[in-house]
Amino acid sequence: MSWKPRFLFLLVTSVPAFTGYPVNLSHVEVIAGVTYAWALYFLIANTCILMVMGKQFYTNAAAISAMITMPVVFVGSTVSYLIFLSGLGYELGQSAYSSHYVSLCISMLTVIPLAVSIVGVLPFQSFEQNLLRNQNGVSKLEKFFLMFLRVFNHILYFVIPSILEIIREEGQYRRSAGSSLTSAPELSLHGKVKRTKQKLIRLIRDMIQLGVEGICASIQYIPIWAVEISQLPDKSRKI
Amino acid sequence: MNELLRKSTRYFKTYEEREEAFRNSVFSLIPRKYSGPKLFWKDFGLISVQALSKYMKHPAAYITSNPRDCLAFGNPWQVLTAAVLKAQKADNGFSHDVLDIAKEFDIQENLYQPIRTLSGGETVKVSLAKSFIASKYSCRLTIASPFSWLSYDNSVFLEKLFRHYGGLNIPIEVFALEGEDSDGQIVRNDNCQKETDRRAIGFTLYLKGVRILLGTPLNPLYSQQTFARADDFESELFSPCLIVGKNGQGKSLIGKVLARATPFQGVAKLRCKHKSGPTRLLFQDVITQTLSRSFDAIAASSNCENEAKPSQVYEKILKEYLVCLGDTGQKASGNALKDDLRPRSLLEIKAMLVAVRLCRVPSALILDEPDWGLTRMSSIAFVSAVIRVSHDLETPVILISHKPWWFPIAKSVIYVKRSSKEIDSENRSSFQIYLRCNKPKSL
Lengths: 239, 443
What we know:
- The complex is a heterodimer.
- Chain A has two domains: 3-122, no CATH class; 127-230, no CATH class.
- Chain A has eight helices and two strands; from the N terminus they run H-E-E-H-H-H-H-H-H-H.
- In chain A, strands 1-2 form a two-stranded antiparallel ribbon.
- By secondary structure, chain A is an all-alpha fold.
- The two termini of chain A are 37 Å apart.
- The radius of gyration of chain A is 24 Å and the shape is globular.
- In chain A, helix 3 (55-86) runs antiparallel to helix 4 (95-121) and helix 6 (140-182) packs antiparallel against helix 7.
- In chain A, 78% of the residues lie in helices and 2% in strands.
- Chain B has helices at residues 3-8, 15-25, 37-46, 49-57, 76-90, 98-104, 120-134, 146-149, 155-167, 191-196, 251-258, 286-289, 295-300, 310-325, 334-338, 346-358, 376-392, and strands spanning 9-12, 60-63, 140-144, 172-177, 201-214, 226-230, 233-239, 241-244, 264-272, 279-282, 364-368, 397-401, 412-418, 422-423, 429-437.
- In chain B, strands 5, 6, 7, 8, 9, 10, 11, 12, 13, 14 and 15 form an eleven-stranded mixed β-sheet that branches.
- Chain B is an alpha/beta fold.
- Chain B is globular and about 70 Å long.
- The interface between A and B is large, with 65 and 71 residues.
C-alpha cells in the first residue's frame, strides 16, 4: 500500500483523538477516568496502527509512547500526592486527581502512537527529492518546506543518534559504577538519602545538558543551510 | 599535494584559531559550539541579516570541518541537483549532468542513498563534488581542515577540485592545523616514544556475528534500512593497537561497537587481564561528546568513589603531554588551571574526557582519530601522554586513524576493509566489514 491511503486512513482514525469527538460525549466509565468510548477507541486506534504500519513499526511506536507516557503519569501523580500530603490541595483525597492521571495515561497511549505513525508514514525523503526534480526552480513555499525537512532530518538522523551514542557510551560506565556501588556495604539511612539526592541532582543536570546540547546541535547549521536553500533559483525564473 | 594547495593553505597553532579564521571566511554564519552554550548563543545572536546579505553578495563554496554539515539535503543526488540548479541560475549555458559529476567523484553508486547512511569517505566525496559544481556561482573556495577528514587515497579528488578552481582563477583558502597535511610517520626513538615502547599490554579482541543497523535508532519507522556486518574475528593483540583503513571502511563503527555506543546484535568482546570494566571511547567529534557541558561538569560526570579523581588523571596527562613536547614549565600544574574560568582549549577538553574515562580503569580505551583538532606535534604528544598514563593503569589503548603517523608506535595493527553494498529482496542494503590483523611486533 502506498503512503497516501495509509496517511489518509491514519488521519481519519486520529480525528477523535485530536478533536475529542465523539469519544468525549460518553461519560459511562469502565474504571475511574476511563470511559467505554475511550477504552474502545484506544483499542481501535492501536489495532489500526498495527494493521496499517506492521508489527515492527507498531512495537517501536508503542515503546516510544510508553517511554513518554510513564514518566509524565507517574511523576505527575506523585507530585499531586505530595501536594495532597502537604495539605496544599486536593482536599477530597486521592480520588480528586487519580482519575485524571488514568485518563491522561489512556489518551497519551492513543495519541502518541497515532502521531508517530502519521509522521512515520510520510516519505520525507521523496518530498525532498520531488521538490528538486523541477528544473524550473523552487517556489518560496517549497524553500520553506525544504528548510523544514532539512532541520527535521538533521535532528532525526544526526542530533538524536549522536546524543544517544554518547549516552550509551557513558551509560556503560554508569551501570558498571552502579553495580559496584550496590555491592558496597549497607548504607545508613542518611547515606541512602544523600545518594538519592545526588542521583536526583545528577538526573536533573543531565536532562538540562541534553536539552541544551539538543537545541544547540539542532540549530547550529540553520544559517548556512538557509543560505544554501535561498540560493536555489525561484520558480518564476525561466532558465 | 600540489603547489596550489600548498600556497592556498594557512596553518594555525590551535583548533580555536583555525575555526575562528574559517568562521570569518564564511562571514560568521556558523556559531561556535566548542566553547559551551554561552558563546554559542552570543554567536547565534550576532548572525544578523547583515551577515546573511554579506554572504549572498560574496558567495563561497565551502567545506566545513565535518563535511557532512555542509550538505543541506537528504541524499547525494539532491545535493548535486541543488548545486546544478544554482549553477544554471548563474550561467544559463551550464549543462553538466549530475550523474557525470557523480562518476568523476566516484559516488555514482551512492547517488540515491540517504546521507545518514553514507560512510565518512562517501560524504567527503559528495562535498567535494558539490564544491566542484559550486565554482559556477562562488567567488572563492574555502575549506576547513581537509587533511583531518581526507584519507590519502581520496586526495586525488581534492587535487581535482583544486585544479578546477585554479584553472578558473577562483581564489582558494584552506585553513589547516600545523602539520595536519604531513604524511610522514612519527620518527622512532622520539622523546615521546621511549615510554610507549617500554612495555606491551596484551588483550584479546573477539567479534562474532556482529550486525549493526545504520542510520538512526528510529530507522525501523522507515522502510529503507542499511546494515553492516563485521566478519568474525579473534586475535591476541598488544597495546597500543592501531585500527587503520581508508575513509569509510568502518573503523569508527568497530570502535563504537566495542564501546557499546551503538546497538548491535552478536558478540563483541575486548578481554584484558584483571579488567572487568567497560571499554571506553573518545569519539572523533569530541565537541559533541562534551554534550555542551562545561569543563568542570565533564570532570564531575564521573562518580569515582574509590578510584583516582579525574582531576588527578587529567593533571598527569597534561604533565606527560608537556614532557613530550619538551616543555617542563609551570603550565603542567593542574592547580594553576583548576580555578581558571577561561574557555578551555580543545586539547584540555580532550584530556579531561580521557581522564574521566581512565579514572575508573576501563578494560580498554579507544581513541577515534585522536589527531582531530590538534596540530601534528600536539597530537603526537597527546597520544603518547595518554598511552603512558593508560599503561601505568594497565589499560590497553586502541587508536583508530586513517593517518600513517601512528604505525611506528603501534604494537599491533588491525586493517579494516569493507565490501561493496548488496541489496536484498526486501530493499535492505548491507555490507561486510573485514578485519585483518598483522603479527604483533616482537616484544
